[in-house]
## 1
Amino acid sequence: MWRPPWPEDWGMTVRQVNRWGVLVALATLLVGVVNVVSPVHVQAVATINQVGVDIDGEAAGDLSGVSVAMSGDGSRIAIGANSNDGTGIDAGHVRVYTLINGTWTQTGADIDGEAARDYSGKSVAMSGDGSRIAIGAYGNGSSAGHVRIYTLISGTWTQTGTDIDGEAAFDNSGYSVAMSGDGSRIAIGATTNDGTGIDAGHVRVYTLINGTWTQTGVDIDGEVATDTSGVSVAMSGDGSRIAIGAPYNDGNGSDAGHVRVYGVPTVPVAPTITSVVGTNGSLSVTFASGADGGSPITNYKYSIDGTNYIALNPATTSSPFIISGLTNATFYSVTIKAVNIVGDSLHSNTVGGTPVAPAAIVEPSTTTVSATTTTTIAAVDISSSKKVVVSKNELPQTGSDSFPLVALAMGLLSAGLVVTTRKRFTRR
């Protein structure tokens, strides 16, 4: 039997009940009036008072208030009117209001649906600070549906990224929408997607990465046909968990409905640099990884100026790694980020290091033998192990010493003989 993709909501009444089960607030949706009434007093419990006056819909039949979202501090709200006719019959629109001196004042212009019968505003979500909203238009594009995200920039609601379209015609994507606290992640319900059966429904999660809304994880499909999973969706503040409603699931009886909760991958936790050691033209960076955010870390990025980050090539997930091509005797401040399928972590702590040039090679030196029978040839102080080769009458003799100062005494040398020493270094 065919079911609509949503429970009937025309003439919908919403009630708020306190912990004693007593009605304390009543809101009624008829022809587009959002009205909160609070006449009920319970013993010594404080009265719930209306803030500001009613925020009325623009015109009859607009169904303003079919959806509503609020900022974390309650000073800004978004109101969906999915049958507003601003850009065509039932195109829908959303209006945003900010509480200024006790008055709800519209912020920015109307955010109209794209075309007639888009039903834009059927769902709406808002970031914690009220600067970003997501708007669902489940009727867009042969009812494939879409979601648009807007950010308030200099008083204007400006679209962020492109439209997020439903998978197929009649999916009704955008029937529900939820957003993380910082506005960087959204969940979108498509109540009549057929992924696991006709009208099983599904939810997709998207993360804003470099200005593009990128799907995070796979589709979260409804259990079976006609579940209409995705009629409702909610997201935790950090975007790591979502709840999905499927009102027509039959798990506990016909149309008993159910809710499923899912964990969603996030960006990794920032790594910690433990040391940066300078070598010839390079820095060796040792670090400790943070949690992977529920998705494996695939690479790291580094910065030596605190601004520009370069991905390791080839990709590296183990410690330490080498940053090469640097200038010796130059101090660098190093920070790193971890990368997974969702995106980049926050940057690590900053640790400095200086590439170090190798010890200089000492050129051959000469010593003139005195009139005595024995002359001591003093070697240069060097830090590496070394071998001294002394040539006498072109017949080499050798001596070696592992001490910092090398002195080799040769006998039976004639006065005025020039002796050449060559120092050969073996680096450790």
## 2
Amino acid sequence: MVIEEQFTSLETLLSDSDLPLLVMFYAPWCGPSHLMDTVLEQVESRMSQELRIAKINSEAHPDLATRYHVHALPSFVLFKQKQPIGQIEVEQTEHLLSVERFIPRLQGLLSSAS
């Protein structure tokens, strides 16, 4: 998982892999963002051959948050072939705290963009 300390630019992340990229926009003060960390680790473990994951601090990179219409935190934007193909805003975090709920949402976005 690419985390803030390793982040240089979204364009670099998108260019560095042929796999789809899931970006989680978060803020350090956001409790639900921290709750999703465990889920993301499980998603990465189970889907490592299907996608890459990166976390971007929306406060440190407000231009990216604005460009991808991030209105709630955490928010996820899924990119395929360098283009955004779907977004998941976690308005009700408890619905996505389970990897069993989150992975099907991702798979649905991936298959609809094929």
## 3
Amino acid sequence: TQIIENGKKRAREIIEKHRTALDAIARKLMEVETLERDEYEAILTKEGVEIQDIYRDMREAEEKMGDPSKSLASEIISEEEK
């Protein structure tokens, strides 16, 4: 139960901290019913919320490193063609 209580406390803190952003999103959704990701991000950024995109960060890191599975696959194909 301590984990749940800590989670509820943390959620409450986040909601309170970003209340103006949540209200701005709610107002926009009342106008247009749906928002695309870039629209959400624009509202959040305007309200001063830092956007963290761990998936984007991971993709960028993978692109910098290259895809090792593709390198291995191309090596295997090259060997088979010989």
## 4
Amino acid sequence: MTVLTEGGADVFVVNLNETDEPPPYYVEVGGRRFSFDGSTFLIFGHSAVMPQWVREHEAEGRLVLLGERDDRYLRYVHDPTEEMEEDEEE
């Protein structure tokens, strides 16, 4: 895992190029489950929109993670409030 810094925003990047399998919908990091949000950024050319996306999610209390796959970053989000709702259902 590496850290990408763009436009004052820092985000962890996990390498998903190690397998030919389709990228996972969920990624577990540090006991937290990140869900793929269905969108991607180009690896080259992401700096115009990526920092704003990171800041918007962090302002809402969500954590973000990028998954590097070929020439794209897949966008993953962890929402602690969803995790608490799942715990309450059990």
